[in-house]
Amino acid sequence: MVSGPQSHLSSHHQPLPAQYQTTDKGRAAAEAYYSKEESSTANNTMPSHEQLSLTSTIPIINSSHTMPRLGFGIYQSPRDVCVNSCLTALKAGYRHIDSAQFYRNEAEMGEAVRKSGIPRSEIFLTTKILSSGGSPEKTYQKCLESVKSIDKDGYVDLFLIHSPSGGKEKRKEMWQALEKLVEEGRVRSIGVSNFGIGHIEEMKAYAKIMPPQVNQIELHPWNQQREIVSYCNKHNIIIQAYCPLVRNMKAHDPTLSQIAHEYGKSTGQILIRYCLQKGWVPLPKSDTPARIEANADVFGFELGKESMEMLDGLDQGAEGAIVEAVKNE
Questions:
Q1: Most buried of 13, 119, 148, 248 (most Cβ within 10 A)?
Q2: β-strand partners of 127
């Protein structure tokens, strides 16, 4: 049940081959990589791939950049502990941190990167805008302030619209502000969060950058959101999974506990590994150093087909969401 060929990984988001794991290969390399995967899937064969590791990345569509396969979430991480939590994560090998304006810890994320001594270019930083500023210019300035608070004269790797709840015009306003930041080099990639199929489809009327490069949604065995996941896979939109640990609410689930016992791993490690093998980018969150480290120790084993099917069988649809299931109409 331990390490071996990773035949149960999603064909859409295999680790990016080593020869593409740089930021200078450009759009052609990413598109060629995805085309290769699609061809392999059509022929019912798995594309050649390397074994997942903490340094694995995946290509971002329409971009020369890549994204680390494992992220570190800092939702509800208080300002006075956030810097230390981020430093612990970076020391443990994470190179991907996820913040948001709503979290009120963007500056602390940036401070941790500067204190870490790790080159900025080696760390992938994400933030999000929840609501528009009231006008296109004010929304743009609101996003720019986030970038400056994280990396004063630099950039943010990924900026997301946090929620579709503001309405169509507000979504358009926020997206166009993000596109402007991309044009100015202050943001490298842009995407959405909690968007359903209809929300993404409506963007075709106004978006210059299309499709969104990421959709961050709640994902775990009890809320698999298969319709939007299938849509994102079809369009090569990277799927990020928030709440992959279900906030520890399912730690005593009999099926999960049985699998964890069989592999000699914690329930959290099983859930993170499940996300990775589904092709999602999990964003586990903790402020406890030992758990931060354990959550990154998920690359020395592989869940077999039977275990993956058992976890797949736990899906409760929208009822299994603890935060939000997307609306696809």
A1: 13
A2: 159
Q: What letter would DSSP give residue 103?
A: G
Question: What Å distances lie between residue 144 and 105, 113, 174, 181, 298, CA to CA?
Answer: 15, 19, 12, 7, 35
| DSSP secondary structure string for all residues of 223-236 | B--HHHHHHHHHTT
Residue with tokens 């976890």: 311
Report the alpha-carbon distance of residue 68 to residue 233 in Å, rounded. Answer: 17
Model confidence at 134: pLDDT above 60: yes
Helix (H, G, I), strand (E, B) or coil at 39: helix
Chain Cα centroid distance, residue 233: 14
Burial category of 80 from C-beta neighbours within 10 Å (exposed 0-12, middle 13-18, buried 19 and up):
exposed
Contact between residue 126 and residue 156 where contact means Cβ atoms under 8 Å apart? yes
DSSP 3-state of 127: strand
Question: For residue range 11-42, what is the model confidence (pLDDT) as tens digits?
Answer: 444 443 333 333 444 455 555 555 555 543 33
Segment 188-231, tens digit of pLDDT: 999 999 999 999 999 999 999 999 999 999 999 999 999 999 99
Residues contacting residue 14 through CB under 8 Å, at least 6 positions apart: 37, 47, 49, 58, 279
Residues annotated as part of the active site: 103, 162
Q: Is the peptide bond before 211 cis (omega within 30 degrees of 0)?
A: yes
How high is the pLDDT of residue 329? 77
